[in-house]
Amino acid sequence: MDLSALASGLDTIWVVLTAAMILLMEGGFALLEAGFVRQKNAVSIIMKVFVDITFGALIFYFIGFGLMYGKDAFGLIGTSGFMMGGDLTHIKLTISNDTYWLFQCAFVIAVISIVSGAVAERIHFHAYILYTIAMTGLIYPIAGHWVWSAGGWLGSLGMIDFAGSAVIHAMGGFSALAAAIFIGPRIGKFSDNGTPNIVPPSNLPLASVGAFILWFGWFGFNSGSTLSATNGSIGHIAVTTMLAAAAGGATCILFTLFRYRKADPPMVINGSLAGLVSITAGCAFVSDGAAIFIGAVSGIAMVFATEYLDSKKVDDPVGAFAVHGVSGSIGTLAVGLFAKPELTEGIGQGYSGLFYGGGWSLLGAQALGLVIVSVWGFILTWISLKLINRLVPVRVSRDEELVGLDVGIHGVPAYSQDHDFIELEQLKKN
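That's the Ammonium transporter sequence above. Prediction below.
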């Protein structure tokens, strides 16, 4: 028996299965966001997720993968691999390039889903399609090339981001922040004096199920990033992922009990997600204790970030920036503090966190990379939306927003109790 062929086959199965787990996270995003928004906008959430998967996959195939993983040019962009053609010999893996593309495609779909929540209930569907093309074809692939591709300049400086706290979550979170600021708050979200009004979620049980699906998919997100079924760190990665998520959720339960005298369900949901986001960069490189600490800090930081955005009249209906932007930043920097040298042996020498005798070099590289990809996401998103707004309106009309995007944009309600509205409209026409 050819052991190398057997290992390659096992690795292929592992990567395909974990890619499928990551793609299932889109169901989690759909349920989470549909549960957090009002029921009149649930269908619009589902339609945006379908845009993420369909347009995202196609654009990443035609353009994004080549820019991200193609043959390096000056450490900035890839120049081959468009439609999986050209020179890809520099990708030296035990799996095929097709398998690798599938796994990376699942990642890019997750990135655009981060932004969709921040602009929920008011972005125009046409504009969202165009922005999805920009994110999956340009914004994310170029940032990813800098960190993950052979020759990328941030990776060459020493930045490490195992499964994407910076490249996916911080970059996506700051992109979401730019989009939320650009499009403005929902009608009625803030009073004339600037105080935020509560917009009750339509279905918290649905949002909870979405969070659990995301939690499940995250094991594929993190453990699958080994790209090998025989990698001995898979178990450790899964454990740190679980502990950080648990710490984020548990901390939010206790913190909101103390702060509000009641455990806040949306905060607890997002606290667990914040823990998952924060451990994504260092899941393979930090100890179990560090994972708990990172998750706990992220859970508390998420609460303060959510309150801060409200104080600045920035409307982020699902907490995309607080969960992904803030927690992704914490997780990226935490690698520079807690990376253990014995856990980073597989990626080269000198990767030790500040608390393990590594000095400031790794932390500096992490901080630089974090700032670069976050600013890149924010600025490119702002420019993209500015250009898109010249072609089609980025925001729906006032009437469409008040009626709800389900009926106003897609012509169909999400729930049966809305049928009375449809029957009334039919009677008017008759």
